[in-house]
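#onboarding

Welcome to the new folks! Below is a worked example of what a typical request in this channel looks like: someone posts a single protein sequence, and someone else replies with the predicted structure as tokens. Don't worry about understanding the tokens yet, we'll cover that in week two.

Example request:
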Amino acid sequence: MGKKKIMVIKAGGTVCEKPNKKGFLEIPKEGQDYFHLIPNINDLANITEIEISPIDSTNMTLHHRKKFADMIKNNYQKQDGFVIIQGTDTLAESAISMNYMIQNLGKPIIFTGAQKPIYVENTDAIENIKNSILVATENIGESAIVFDNKIIRGSRAVKRHSEDFFGFYSPKIEEIGKIEKEKIKFNNQIKRKFYLKPEIFTNFKKNVLYYSQISGADTNLLEKIVKDCDCHGLIIGGYGTGNINSKYLKAIELATESGKPVAITTACQYGKTDKKYAVGSEAIERGAFLAYDLTKEAASQKMMYALGIVKSKKKSKKDTIKEVKEIIQTPIGEDLTKE
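Example response:
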């Protein structure tokens, strides 16, 4: 067999940053030509490089992720896999969003980036990019992050460190693979399915808020937010198993009465939500629902996806919440565990 065909989409990020006149790292306005710095990269696959306007991932928007999805859709039959290189700040959110934007994937979409620019000594960019292309040629059919020799399910990924090379992990499940000396060992990855035809949906509703409780604080800001017509959906980070301070119950009730779904996640790195405590069940009685072990990043992207699906059907307020709840609580790309 010949080498696999891999499309690499370059979207900026630390990997191509250089110091500006003030000494701060920034993305150059012209060109992302750095593959010549990666030894033997073309031995790994037949690589097609595509550049989109480079962006610091802090400013990544739904518009940019739609571009990723459209490029993959338009080149799906021509390529064996895809690698997307972007900044690390919102790398997890991009990998998560692809899990919802592209259903019935069947081929790999591998995200990577770097904690140090490729132009400096001891950069992690070269290894991350080579490993990502290598993984994209293998038997994997899902969105994933390759970073620091680890393969992490995209729908479960979290950025864990701002500078360390071990930048990403999946706290609620084990990694789906690792790379050692260009040898890949997978662990329960979603495998390739060449017969699948991808279904693309990018009409996410962006008017979503994640609200983090602050113990001891006293404000009615959440009530003002849910009354705002610009807020269509809410995710609240619950304490422990999804416990909500009673001062927020009125805001939850106001939201659900106006047809705005409220999902409860756990703010803990490990574990999931349930209704074992009264302070958690009271929020459910007001119309909120559990997001089980979805990370806050996944719950936020999935809420935008679910609202996009439901709003296109022009449902009633009650049916909107019911259907959004069903979508949030149904596993997509193994993004959550209900039991």
